[in-house]
Prior knowledge:
This protein is of the alpha/beta class.
Amino acid sequence: MAARKGSAPKLGDVLLVTGSESFLADRAVRSAIAAVSKNNSGVEVTDLDASTLDVGVFAELTGPSLFASERVLVLRALENLPSEMAAHLIEYAGSPSDDVLAVLVHSGGQKGKGVLDKLRKASVNEVVATAPKAWELPQFVAGEIRLLGGTVDEGAASALVDAVGHDLRALAGACSQLVSDSGGQAVTAELIGQYFGGRAEVTSFAVADAAIAGRTEPALEQLRWALDCGVAPVLVTSAMAGGLRGLAKYASAAGGMRDADLAREVGVPPWKLKQLKQQARGWTPGGLAAAIKAVAQADADVKGASGDVGYALERMVLTITRAHGRR
């Protein structure tokens, strides 16, 4: 999730936005601009790629202006900043202009890390745009809906994730649509089904849930439907791997733990423990090992080791459902 260090951005600040989750990074940029524009519609915003920056342009954008007294400078792809500009930017961060908010966006990775470290030493504010883990996505959905003035319970939030997938932009858009059309009522699983039910039935998670439950025919039907509807094969193996890993962690966890502690240990939201408890009844250590091995083979197959992706996935599903209940 996006984590902020320091207070809300204001003119005279340098805000560093780091991380690979572009949706959260873009939101941080928009929020920063909104914060300084709230009481001043005349704020001038310049948004450009850091690779195009030179000394003259930087001096013009951060120095005294004849046309706007208050400005926001957004520098994107900071990792591509020309090497000769690094010293100028770091010097500016140590003594920024009072009438400029500089927002520096770095998309993650090691490139440009030296500049990042020096900016942090200059005590700039930072927003870290980190993609939430899969089990945190229902929390993201619930937070989005609350921000929009709506309400939703954990089950419905999870249903929306299952229906829409893991893309944050798509999830945020779905939340906005549901709250807008809910008429002030809570966002329910039924409402989600009306809007996204067709998509929910073909997600990779539906395939994984059916296979892990040992339901061969439904799992194969869901798989064929998913592939026909354009679900990427790698998402099917990823969902299957995630489901089996969670089940293996649950099965090997120490007994007597509180639900909150057990959920943290397994890496799932607390509401999912009930589903894992039901799934675990049909699995043995030997069966889980065989299923996880089948997923690893299928993952290699869909990434190029096999010429028939559909067959590889069907073989994976059959192996997993047969491993269910294996002694």
